[in-house]
Batch of 2 targets.
Target 1
Amino acid sequence: MKENTQLVGAGRHPERFGGLVNTPICRASTILAGSMAEWDAMKRARAAEEPGATTYGRFGTATAHAFEEAMAQLEGGRGSLVFPSGLAAIVTALTALLSAGDHILVSYSAYSPTRSFLDRVLRRFGVQVQVYDPACGEDIRSLMRPNTRVVYVESPGSETLEIQDIPAIARMAHAQGAFVVMDNTWATPLFFKPLAHGVDVSIHAATKYIVGHSDAMLGVVTCNEATWARVKQTTQDMGQTAGPDDIFLALRGLRTMGLRLQRHWESGLRVAQWLEQQPEVEAVVHPALPSHPGHALWKRDYSGACGLFSVVLRTRDAQAVAAFVDALQHFGIGVSWGGYESLAIPFTPGEHHGARWPYQGSAVRMHIGLEDPQDLIDDLRQALTVMAARASLSPSAQPEAARQNA
């Protein structure tokens, strides 16, 4: 089936629920059996991982099972597990695959809470954490150690949007017996297939494009055969579970994700192309633009782009940047992304980026929502005008000689 057909049908079983087109919200903690024989059968079914089998709400109800089934189908994995947030999904998968004395390689462009978990938590339990350049490709083999167990990738990178050569990294990792874990939130299951490119565990902050409406927090992990048992057992050992109401919203979001992603992609690229031509803009960091350093890799491995990219403004005046953001009428100021609304928020590249971040101006992460792209362009035009005026008035933006003469 084509992906849009999968999105409509994956995880749906109307015959189980009196013909209801959507899997209902099933709220439950206790699940009763009619007899001891039935109870034993329920336990056997859950142990055998039969579809929908459960003995307690923490192991999932029909709502959770429908979402997990749909995600496993879209990702092409052995199985999927749902979590209360994207970060919960990340930390559980890493905990499942790492032990004291193990070594993990993590891209310096990874989501900062992922880095913080590794540094603050897993280091305390004896895991050796090493940061690497996301552009390394096959050269990652020079960083591999006998105890390297996980190579963590995020492509594009968080905020700085580096594209990694995932197949090359996976080949090198597997040659040393390491697993590859990927945060694939930016591309979604529609625009990149991690497991088909050598990844062992694919993670999404379903909060973003899967839910799609900025009204629920969820994460999801999809595993291949080699990692499934360990990640599933650790998920249960850590008591990870998600509420059925939020999962229902994710199921709802899946049904329209194909249409939404197409609009995010088209509008985002149109806005990015316009921004790239503006004199107030130093650079636009968008993998689908030919100017992006990783554009060739994106074109080779990805089938589309979402609405998230970064723009570098030609000013380092914080007040001018604030004036630009404050002047925007159709962009909210807030973290997260992937909803229907457009967002803009300044950021500073992390300490590890160094020379890999070659720009001099101030960076703003932008998410292009479902508004008309021309309205967004018009909004950005007037905000850039406000920024330019504010920068010209700022003492920090004036030449030294002019300030001395003032």
Note: Residues 397-406 have pLDDT under 50 and may be disordered.
Target 2
Amino acid sequence: MEDIAAKPLAEVMSGNLVSFTADLREGAPRPDFGSFITSVLDEEGETPLSILAVVLDVVTCPPDSIHKPSALGLSRRELKKEQPHIFALLKTEIKAAILGYIENGRVYNHLPPRSPLVHDFVYKAGKRAVIALTDDFEYLRLLFNFSGDLPKDEILAATVRQAALNRPQTEREAYLVEAGQALCQLLRSDYERMVSVVRKIKPNPIYMSLEA
């Protein structure tokens, strides 16, 4: 299985067998909605695991209830130049749903036997791991059954788009078609919702005239 990136993206702050929250490390790029990340579990005396998860949300907020941001009327560029300390008072959290794991070089598309631990590092998932995880559309069922107050239809569509982007360009179109068929089966009891999600997989751009 392909090596993970050299630099960690984030660090786990809380987690269970179905999801985890991680703090983005300073200077690390924010992951895209629906993109794939991995948390590495390497406790002494246990078989190492790499948890595979999908990004559900990225939230920037103050670290506590005391330090609250307020409008200053400056652009981000101006703030970084004039008051750079402000950004030290903010943190960015990544919320992710677990879809599978890697153990002994094999990818499993079901929940792992162990949960991520606080302070485990989080990395961008490698393309080969993502392809192996998403070859079987069981990951869509896991996401469909995931509880939480989140735009589930948008998550399903974004995850499929990200899974396609991890594939060679010549294979993306066929993958989107297969994923659409899998979603039709998953949502067959709700036709309008099914059509909406399938359209989001490969959305048509909306062109707007900026002329007055």
Note: The CA atoms of residues 10 and 25 lie 5 Å apart.
